[in-house]
């Protein structure tokens, strides 16, 4: 085989020193490979044969068996178990519900309704009609006679007149207070005029106004007779020194 068997002494890779191998390695290599081929090759052929046999068995034996088993189980469920379950479970359950449980439940419901009507609704209605409603009505009449009527009388005969008189007194006091406030305001205005406004006007007319008038005349005279000539003299001096 290529690369498997040693070459002769004149080969490209043979010789005692080819590739660095010694003579002992070259001598042992051939028997080892012969033994390996003698052992491994039959095992590989046996393995390939087993694989092929297993594939054939799986394809032509197991797969048809599995398909037949699937068909058998499908037919068993469709034609045996499902009808049997329908006959043995569904039909009896429907019959039991229709002819036993539903009538029993209807009877129990009717009995519970009858008992509730006669043991709960009717007694409660009778209790309300003959006990509670007269009691509530009596309590309402008692509350009206004891509380509402006295409070109404007290409001009409005592509180309302008192409130009306108090409101009238407050209104009258408000009007009187307004009149007094106006009179006090007028008196204070007259007092301010006599004590403050008239003296201040007199002082201003005969003292302040003439003083500020004379001060204004003096300021205008200073501006006309002093400031303007000084400004003109400064302007003439600047022109004389520096020209236009």
User: Main beta sheet: strand number and arrangement?
Assistant: none
What proportion of the residues form beta strands (DSSP E)? under 5%
Which value, in Å, is the CA radius of gyration? 69 Å
Order of helices and strands: H
Distance between the termini: 131 Å
Number of helices: 1
Low-confidence stretches: 1-19
Quick one: how many beta strands?
Answer: 0
Structural account:
By secondary structure, this protein is mostly helical. Helix content is about 90%, strand content about 0%. The protein contains 1 helix and no strands.
Which key phrases capture this entry?
244 residues; mainly alpha
Lay out the secondary structure.
Elements: H1 23-242
């Amino acid at each position: 085989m290529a690369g498997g068997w040693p070459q002769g002494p004149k080969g490209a890779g043979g010789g005692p020193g080819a590739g660095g191998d010694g003579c002992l390695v070259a001598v042992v290599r051939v028997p080892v490979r012969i033994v390996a081929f003698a052992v491994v090759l039959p095992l590989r052929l046996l393995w390939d044969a087993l694989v092929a046999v297993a594939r054939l068995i799986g394809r032509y034996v197991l797969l048809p068996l599995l398909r037949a088993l699937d068909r058998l189980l499908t037919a068993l469920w469709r034609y045996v178990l499902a009808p049997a379950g329908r006959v043995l479970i569904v039909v009896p359950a429907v019959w039991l519900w229709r002819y036993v449980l539903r009538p029993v439940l209807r009877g129990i419901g009717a009995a519970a309704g009858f008992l509730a009507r006669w043991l709960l609704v009717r007694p409660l209605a009778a209790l309300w009609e003959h006990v509670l409603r007269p009691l509530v009505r009596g309590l309402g009449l008692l509350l009206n006679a004891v509380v509402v009527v006295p409070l109404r009388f007290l409001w009409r005969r005592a509180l309302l007149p008192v409130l009306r008189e108090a409101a009238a007194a407050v209104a009258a006091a408000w009007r009187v207070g307004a009149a007094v406030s106006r009179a006090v305001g007028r008196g204070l205005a007259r007092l301010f005029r006599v004590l403050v406004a008239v003296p201040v006007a007199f002082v201003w007319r005969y003292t302040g106004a003439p003083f500020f008038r004379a001060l204004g005349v003096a300021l205008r005279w200073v501006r006309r007779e002093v400031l303007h000539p000084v400004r003109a003299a400064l302007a003439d001096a600047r022109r004389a020194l520096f020209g236009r």
